[in-house]
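Ticket #4471: structure output looks truncated?

Reporter: J.K.
Steps to reproduce: submitted the chain below (134 residues) through the standard prediction queue, then opened the result file.
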Amino acid sequence: MDEKKRPKEGLIAVIGDEDTVTGFLLAGVGQRDQRGNSNFLVVDQNTKRAKISNAFKEFTTRNDVSIVLVTQDIATDIRKEIDEHDAVIPTVLEIPSKAVKYDKSKDVIVRRVYRLLGKDLDEEVHKEKMKGRM
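Returned output as attached by the reporter:
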């Protein structure tokens, strides 16, 4: 995308469970335009995968979005789309949710950093699990 077309201050988009999205909305992240388009999606057990995928694609192609936050449990459902997203902006970040413990071994950004450093994330996660058992 041409950087000249991107606004200097971009929005943060959020895809997550009700508690997570509500927290970000209370912090002032939410926005809805005249056509009713918003920069957030609340996901519950009845939300179809296609709706989540479509919201992710919309947020990652909008000119006014600079960061897309996705709770890790929902990111697992759209892993293919997240893995295919390779643009720097908008940056896609996986965040913990209230219901599911964060697992850095599933986080795309963490995996990329480990790969760049020449380290094996799976091996490190295994070592951490073994330490916890001792």
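Triage note (M.O.): checked the attachment and the full token line is present. DSSP finds six helices and four strands in the chain.
Status: closed, working as intended.
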